[in-house]
């Protein structure tokens, strides 16, 4: 066996083994944790295994009493995701020094907050400080689809809550007034990495829910700024029906987005849009792009909702991943309308002590490693 100055290679290897182990431990200790975790199916399986059952039970009871709340909850989730990501910022109240997203003029018709608050209270009672408001909303929206005869969507969880909610952030993440279908598709692609198909699929959420008359009044009475002019692309009989429901200047009355089946998640929305009876201008705009128009036609003529259900599940999950906060980012709010109060000094002291122990441990490892090198 070869030797170095009288020391056999085997002996040298045996002597070096403890040093190698310590150097490996030193290296591992010095490596920072992953910068970002990811949402995953069953994120609460160990920390709050009953979480999804609690949400489903509460949503079942809520929709049994108020079926029309399914649409608002579903819309509330999409509004949250498209402004800053799916991190519950839409749920925060305004303060004396800040106007929150929920009070943006563009969000005046958004509702469903009380549903999230009620479910979050149940989750806090069962598992304090575990399930985020962002996930509470995401799961409630998922169950809004399921409980209105739509598909069950396996939904990744593990989102944490953000603490920024600014009304000025809403407009840059929304289609501007007068936006064309090309503008909306570009917004989806450039800001959200979603496709024209995703736009057509997610628009299918309008199969449930209602909208204020103010969202359709221009199409009924003032198209292009011409007093009394209605939208010629809107079916004439439907225009007459809507004028009977929405009088000039009426901003409060709610009308069904899908009148034949307003509380059933189905493909009837696409039948309406294909027949020029889509309530919103963005619904009608789907007919003006080849990709979105083709999807509308395919679903309007489908003999089964299966393809739409599969597509919606995929696009819904893609949307649900937008801008999520996980791992060390964000917080778990105790009350969804307010950010958590700063931790008590004793908690901060404990965290500092933990960091001190870790620093001391790292120093000890370094000292031992250096000693073995001498």
Automatic annotation (TrEMBL):
Binding-site list for Ca(2+) 1: 80, 83, 85, 89, 101
Record: residues binding Ca(2+) 2: 207, 258, 261, 266
Binding note for cofactor: Binds 1 heme b (iron(II)-protoporphyrin IX) group per subunit.
EC number(s) recorded for this UniProt protein: 1.11.1.7
Signal sequence region: 1-37
Location in the cell: Secreted
Domain of life: Eukaryota
Annotated keywords: Calcium, Disulfide bond, Heme, Hydrogen peroxide, Iron, Metal-binding, Oxidoreductase, Peroxidase, Secreted, Signal
Principal subcellular localization: secreted
Primary enzyme class: oxidoreductase
GO cellular component terms attached to this protein's record: extracellular region
Swiss-Prot/TrEMBL cofactor(s): heme b; Ca(2+)
Keyword Transmembrane listed: no
Residues noted as binding heme b in the record, renumbered to the chain: 206
Sequence ranges assigned to domain Plant heme peroxidase family profile in this UniProt record: 38-340
Site, as annotated: Transition state stabilizer: 75
Catalytic activity: 2 a phenolic donor + H2O2 = 2 a phenolic radical donor + 2 H2O
Gene Ontology BP terms: hydrogen peroxide catabolic process; response to oxidative stress
Gene Ontology MF term list: heme binding; lactoperoxidase activity; metal ion binding
Binding annotation for substrate: 175
Gene3D superfamilies assigned: 1.10.520.10, Peroxidase, domain 2 (1.10.420.10)
Record's function text: Removal of H(2)O(2), oxidation of toxic reductants, biosynthesis and degradation of lignin, suberization, auxin catabolism, response to environmental stresses such as wounding, pathogen attack and oxidative stress. These functions might be dependent on each isozyme/isoform in each plant tissue.
Family of the protein in this entry: Belongs to the peroxidase family. Ascorbate peroxidase subfamily. Belongs to the peroxidase family. Classical plant (class III) peroxidase subfamily.
Protein name: Peroxidase
Source organism of this protein record: Panicum hallii var. hallii
Lineage: Eukaryota, Viridiplantae, Streptophyta, Embryophyta, Tracheophyta
């Amino acid at each position: 066996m070869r030797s170095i100055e009288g020391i056999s290679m085997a002996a040298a290897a045996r002597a070096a083994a403890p040093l190698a182990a310590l150097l490996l431990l030193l290296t591992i200790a010095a490596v920072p944790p992953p910068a970002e975790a990811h949402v995953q199916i069953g994120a609460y399986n160990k920390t709050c295994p009953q979480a999804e059952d609690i949400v489903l039970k509460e949503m079942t009871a809520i929709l049994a009493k108020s079926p029309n709340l399914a649409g608002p909850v579903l819309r509330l989730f999409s509004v949250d995701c498209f402004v800053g990501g799916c991190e519950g910022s839409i749920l925060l109240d305004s303060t004396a020094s800040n106007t929150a997203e929920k009070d943006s003029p563009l969000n005046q018709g958004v509702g469903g907050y009380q549903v999230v608050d009620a479910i979050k209270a149940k989750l806090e009672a069962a598992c304090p400080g575990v399930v985020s408001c962002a996930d509470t909303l995401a799961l409630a929206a998922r169950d809004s689809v399921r409980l209105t005869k739509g598909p069950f969507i396996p939904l990744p969880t593990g989102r944490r809550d953000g603490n920024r909610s600014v009304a000025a952030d809403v407009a840059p993440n929304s289609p501007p007034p007068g936006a064309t279908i090309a503008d909306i598709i570009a917004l989806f692609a450039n800001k959200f990495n979603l496709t024209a198909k995703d736009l057509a699929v997610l628009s299918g959420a309008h199969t449930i829910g209602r909208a204020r008359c103010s969202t359709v009044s221009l199409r009924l009475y003032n198209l292009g700024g011409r007093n009394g002019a209605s939208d010629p692309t809107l079916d004439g009989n439907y225009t007459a029906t809507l004028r009977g429901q929405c009088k000039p200047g009426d901003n409060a009355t709610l009308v069904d987005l899908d009148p034949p089946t307003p509380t059933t998640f189905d493909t009837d929305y696409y039948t309406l849009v294909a027949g020029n009876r889509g309530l919103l201008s963005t619904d009608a705009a789907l007919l003006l792009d080849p990709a979105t128009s083709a999807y509308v036609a395919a679903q309007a003529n489908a003999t089964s909702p299966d393809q739409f259900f599969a597509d919606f599940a995929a696009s819904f999950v893609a949307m649900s991943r937008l801008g999520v906060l996980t791992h060390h980012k964000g917080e778990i709010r105790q009350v969804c309308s307010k950010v958590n109060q700063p931790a008590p000094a004793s908690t901060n002291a404990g965290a500092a002590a933990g960091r001190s122990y870790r620093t001391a441990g790292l120093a000890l490892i370094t000292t031992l490693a250096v000693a073995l090198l001498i």
